[in-house]
Design brief:
CATH class of the largest domain: Alpha Beta
Distance between the termini: 88 Å
CATH superfamily of the largest domain: Response regulator
Order of helices and strands: HEHEHEHEEHEHEHEHHEHEHEHHE
Strand content: 15-25%
Largest sheet: 7 strands, mixed
CATH architecture of the largest domain: 3-Layer(aba) Sandwich
Amino acid sequence: MTLERRSFIAALGGAMTAWPFAAWPQQALPTIGFLSARSPEESAHLLVAFRQGLAESGIAEGQGTRIEYRWARGEYEKLPALAAELVAIPVTVLATGGGEPAARAAKAATATVPIVAAFSSDPVKSGLVASLSHPGGNVTGVSNLSASIEAKRLGLLHELAPQAKIFAALFNPDFPTFDDQRADTVAAAQSAGIDIRIFRASTEGEIETAFDAMTQQQIAALLVAADPFFNSRRAAIASIAAQRRVPAIYSFRDFAVAGGLISYGIDLPDVYRQVGVYTGRILKGAKPADLPVLQPTKFEFVINMKAAKALGLAITSNLLSLADEVIE
């Protein structure tokens, strides 16, 4: 061996020894993409539930699996780009929260990465899955039906304020299920002989404008429709309703906890727990096409008595008997 060759090998060996460990190729960890139409600040309890579901499937964040998070904060137009970012990482499975806006963005971004979604209405009707029992394709999840029970909420609101002459319903026209929500609510109002006015808001400024219009029209009771944009601004909406002295019903317990009067809807953390369970099962080899879309089994009717007293409202014994939780 020549002197020059010995020198080259020695130098190469020294370089290999000194090369930073991080620069060596490492096996990539399985990655979960978490895409939400909501905001991280108000979704902490939902993430706890999601991770609980992962744990039930034997998956723990940071222990052989990592999670990449993307949040639209109620700005649905950002979701397609955020979904594309996650798919490009690439992620092993994509979990979505915040209803149809995130689920649709995920499905548009990939036809191959498995998707587990928290749907807010019927995913068959919206074209996200072929059927509930056999989803087909790369999408499955949990249908929380939150956007499909506005009629039930209206009935509870009517019992709360039976003397009210004019009711209002606040919707986000940018929410994919807006047309169905509005139609169901109007039909329920007509069936009950209720005069209902429809208001729209998709920005914070439009929420204020809507409440101004309600005051001018002497609205006596309000239904705030299920929508991730409203969910992420629940404290502000509940506060405005209290200031304007408008009794209101909301879609989730979180609103009542934030000061809202009453809420009726599914147990949302349990939905996210189930999304976590399915996500973990897919990481372990299950296929979304073989996992039926789950239906909610837990519903919550919550009354905030402090808010009722501030409005001077007497809650009937029947409503109290129906309540799953009374916040004092």
